[in-house]
Each structure stands twice: as C-alpha cells, then as structure tokens.
Automatic annotation (TrEMBL), chain A:
UniProt KW Protein biosynthesis keyword: no
InterPro entries: Thiolase, Thiolase-like, Thiolase_C_2, Thiolase_N
Listed NCBIfam families: PRK06064.1 (NF004720)
Keywords: Isoprene biosynthesis
Span of domain Thiolase C-terminal: 240-385
Protein name: Thiolase domain-containing protein
Molecular function (Gene Ontology), one example: acyltransferase activity, transferring groups other than amino-acyl groups
Alphabetized Pfam families for the sequence: Thiolase_C_1, Thiolase_N
A GO biological process held by the record: isoprenoid biosynthetic process
Domain Thiolase N-terminal: from-to ranges: 6-222
UniProtKB/TrEMBL annotation, chain B:
Residues of the ChsH2 C-terminal OB-fold domain: 56-115
Organism: Halorarum halophilum
PANTHER family: BLR3430 PROTEIN
Protein name (record): OB-fold domain-containing protein
C-alpha cells in the first residue's frame, strides 16, 4: 500500500466574502493548493469536494462538476456531504483512493457560503444536520444541541461557563497572527462570560462565527512525489471515521462523543501511534464545549478532565499539547463544508514550519485533525506526520 | 432479515405523525425483544437488529436529562424565544421538546415532567411539549 503525501494546500481567507460566488471561493483555494504543490492540474484524477448547505445558501446542488470547472481541472468530481465533517470525509476518501492504487493525485477540500443568509436562515440551514423529526421539529437549533450537551456535561462531570470561556479566549489568541482567520483579535474570559446568550449555558463567544470560505489540498502517492521530486514532507499517516445515533436523545451519555473515539482509534492504529504520540492538534470547536468533548474522545484526557485543559494552560500555545493553533473554528471561522480540509491545510503548514504559529511546536512531527458532523454523529480523524 | 422471500412483511410500527399525535393520549414507544426502546418509524431495533417491535405505553412522567434556554432560533420559532428545550428521560426512550409552564431559572436536571403535544406548533406542525408533573 502506498503512502499519501500532502503536496500542497490552499485556503481562502475565512470571513465575509460579500458578493463572491461559491465557485469563485473554491477556485481561489484550489489554484492556491496547486501552486503550493507545484504540480500540473492535468494530473489531478478526481476532485473530492465537501459542501453542506449549498442547495439552501446558493440554490445550487450538484456542485462537484462546477467546482472542477472553476478550478480548471479535467476530471470528474464527487461531492461529499456529512454536515460539518463534509470536507474531512472528502479528504479521507481521497486518501483511500490513493492508497488503493486507483489514483496518484486527487484534489480534496470543500467550500461553504453562509454570510449571504441572515442569522435566522443560517440557524435554520444548519439545523438540517440534526434529526428533523425528533429534534428540529421540537425547536432544537445547532447551538441549542451543543448547549444541551454542555449542560449534561456540567451535570455529570462538573466544570462551568468560565472553563469554557478559557477555550474561546485561547483560540482567539491563536488566531491573532493567522492571516486566514476571521477574527484576528483577543477575546478575554470576561468578554466571553458577558456576551449575550445564544442557548444557555452557551453565549455568543462560545460559538463559532458564520463564515464564507474554501479549502483545498493536493494529495499524491509517495511514488508520484518521488518521481516528480516534490517537496512534500508531510504525509497522511492515519485516517479514521466514526458514527453515532443522529439524535442527541438517543445517545447513552449526552456529554460524550464516542464517534470521535472510534475515528481516533482507527486513525491511531492506522498510523501505528497512540494518543500520547500526538504533539499538536486541530479539533472541531464549533462550540467551546465541542473542544472539551474532542479532547476527551481523542484520548488526550479522561472524561471530566478535558474541561479544565485550557484554563490550566495545557492546551494553550505554550502548553504540553497546543490545540487549535490556527484559532480553531471559534476564531478562524467555520465555513461548514470547507472546515475539515482547512484543518489539514493548517496542520500541514504547522508541521512544515511555514505557519505563523509553527514556532509554538518547532520540533513537532505528529499532528492530529478532528472534524465532526452534527452533534458528532459523524467524526473523521487524520494523523499527519513529517515523513522521514 | 425477513422479507418477500419468506412471505413475511417486516413490521413497520407506525409513522412519526401517528406517534406524535398519540402523545395527546399519553403516547407510546417501541420495544424490541431485548428490551431496547426506540421511536417510529422503525423497522429494526437500532441497538440489536431485532425486528419484532411492540408498542408500549410511554411512562406518564419522565425526568429532565438536560435543557437549554434558546435565545436565537430558526425563523419558525423566532416568536417563541426565549424558550426552554429539554431532553426528557422516560427510561427506555428519551424525548426532546419544549418545556412549558416553567422558566429556565426554575428548571433543574432531574425534575419530573409529563409529555404532551401541541397540535399546531410554531412551524404549523405538532410540537412535543413537557409540563411540570
């Protein structure tokens, strides 16, 4: 089985791109990734494209062929949809295609356009990721679902809003010098605590923003990288996916996300590592409580211990395990269908040493990305390593 | 798996609409031979794969497992804000709905509530609700 290298990565800045169509956003990320890789676009054999709510936001389904065209490719494309984990799945399937020997080069990533809708419309569109019958019709929103998880967590394991505020403040600090981040500004713990309530116990600064953006990665086989003398030091060493009951009410423990544990266990085994080997991570912090659940599900902390990690300084830039050096979804932004790809793009740059925050982990060789869909009914984990 | 080949139809056990309407009369859930609870429409127990599902009466009260006061809602629920969403534990199944007749300040995990349905909810469809009991 061949190994898979990240030959190049591309992102649009995340934020509000008023008046720009989704196809233009994805073209920017794709062309940037191809230029970063220094490869011929004609060698791309398939586009694996993530998008969640394009039919609602732009009245545009069947987006993959449009994006192939926008990126100037000459190949088929497939859209992957797994809510907020759409691009993570798109990348995972690209990795599997290359490993199987069917392809030597794929472009993988995603795009979401969201700020052209009102907040209420985005709330309605994101809710589509929940169980329509038993959650959406009952008035559950996406922030509301994570709020239910947060309350269940506090009740079962302890912790409070201030612990969560430290997660938000940490991730905003990390985004300060990330030119792709939507919010390059500090947010204090007090500001998080004083922000208007979205769904108690979560406030406005516990939530990721509404974001436009795109991500793309050029993935190649080890053989292609060697034959073309590519400078592609980062490999995708492990990939894993997990699933769970769609509705929160059907989970045995509403404070836990076992789909992420399953995804991580598969990815760790695939890479031949354990959680202890991970030196830096990008996790799916769509809400502050989601980062806590991720830390515990990925095996970095026991249940109940993850909530204090940011407050104790263990996951900050200077901590033992820096988490979300990009700023995370919280501060970098969360263009839903692009996020999973952007996590790998950021991690690749962190490990290559050309990320503004690479200096926080100058010797790191193993990084993890965790991308979740819905209330983690879907989870995708990747392990990236600096290849020998 | 049962199917045409065996001349036997997989039981379908009702629709969501039948289920939600039945909440007005106390409600029901589905139980498999191993005692796992689930909700319709359901052809197979999601926990164990058992296809012989029987209707059971929903317990008259459940306990609040978690809740949230929602301030930012989708358009259909905009006039309802703030409202309290709760997941309520009935033992074999949990249900999600809107908590009526009690403010977020007054509710606590473990509180006892009874289920009901408002036939014409905010979005024009039946809404699962709970009231203190």
């Amino acid at each position: 089985m061949t190994g898979v290298r990240v030959a190049g990565v591309g992102l649009t800045p995340f934020g509000r791109h008023e008046g720009r169509e989704g196809r233009d956003l994805f073209a920017e990320a794709a062309l940037s990734a191809l230029a970063d890789a220094g490869v011929e676009s004609g060698d791309v054999e398939h586009l694996n494209y993530g998008n969640f709510m394009g039919a609602l936001a732009e009245r545009q389904g069947h987006q993959a062929p449009l994006m192939v065209e926008a990126a100037g490719l000459r190949c088929p494309g497939t859209r992957y949809e797994e809510a907020c984990a759409s691009a993570g799945v798109a990348v995972r399937e690209a990795v599997r295609a290359i490993r199987s020997g069917e392809a030597d080069m794929l472009l993988a990533g995603g795009m979401e356009r969201m700020t052209n809708l009102s907040t209420a419309e985005v709330t309605e569109s994101l809710a589509v990721a929940a169980d329509e019958l038993f959650e959406v019709r009952a008035g559950v929103t996406f922030p509301g679902a994570y709020a239910l998880m947060a309350r269940a967590y506090f009740d079962r394991y302890g912790g409070d809003r201030e612990d969560l505020a430290h997660v938000a403040s940490k991730n905003h600090s990390n985004a300060l010098n990330n030119e792709y981040a939507q919010y390059q500004r500090e947010v204090t713990v007090e500001e998080v605590l004083d922000a208007p309530t979205v769904a108690s116990p979560l406030g406005l600064f516990d939530a990721c923003p509404i974001t436009d953006g795109a991500s793309a990665l050029v993935l190649v086989s080890d053989e292609y990288a060697a034959e073309h003398d590519l400078d592609a030091p980062v490999s995708v060493a492990g990939t894993g996916q997990g699933g769970d009951r769609a509705a929160l009410q059907d989970r045995a423990d509403m404070a836990l996300t076992p789909a992420a544990t399953d995804a991580a266990d598969e990815a760790y085994a695939d890479a031949g590592i354990t959680a202890d080997d991970v030196e830096v991570a990008e996790v799916h912090d769509c809400f502050t409580i989601a980062e806590v659940a991720a830390l515990e599900s990925l095996g970095f902390y026991e249940p109940g211990e993850g909530i204090g990690a940011a407050r104790r300084g263990e996951t900050t830039r200077d901590g033992d395990l820096p988490v979300n050096l990009s700023g995370g979804l919280k501060a970098k932004g969360h263009p839903v269908g692009a996020t999973g790809g952007s996590q790998l793009a950021e991690m690749t740059r962190i490990l290559r040493g050309d990320h503004p925050n690479s200096d926080a982990v100058p010797d790191a060789t193993v990084g993890l990305t965790h991308n979740a869909g819905g209330t983690v009914a879907s989870a995708v984990v990747h392990v990236l390593e600096v290849a020998e | 798996m049962t199917g045409e080949g065996e001349g036997e139809e997989t039981p379908r056990n009702g629709s969501y609409e039948e289920w939600v309407d039945a909440l007005a009369e106390g409600g029901f859930y589905l139980e498999c031979g191993d005692g796992h609870g689930s909700l319709p429409p359901r052809r197979v127990c999601p926990e164990c794969g058992y296809t012989d599902l029987a209707e059971r009466a929903l317990p008259g009260t459940g306990t609040v497992a978690t809740f949230s006061e929602v301030h930012v809602a989708a358009p259909a629920f905009a006039d309802e804000t703030p409202y309290v969403t709760a997941v309520v534990d009935f033992g074999p199944v949990r249900l999600t709905g809107v908590l009526r007749d009690v403010s977020a300040d007054e509710v606590a995990i473990g509180d006892s509530v009874a289920p009901d349905v408002e036939p014409d909810g905010p979005d024009g469809r039946p809404l699962v609700v709970f009231r203190p009991a």
